[in-house]
């Protein structure tokens, strides 16, 4: 599965995207795995992934994903979208 990180999520992961090996797993399980992968900020003063995920929204294959029980597969693309500010 491809995971794409935006804004604070990218800062927390230190990468814009990455591939995760997974069988059929729920969105909740995938988010827990990502949080465990980046439990601390990758740079001093930066965000930690668990905090970013707690306030983010998600797209699964470019469609809003609100059901954390939804099962994801290896072919899916997950976007992690923290709140954005600006004008």
TrEMBL record:
InterPro entries linked to this entry: Beta-grasp_dom_sf, Mopterin_synth/thiamin_S_b, ThiS/MoaD-like
Coiled coil ranges: none
Name of the protein in question: MoaD/ThiS family protein
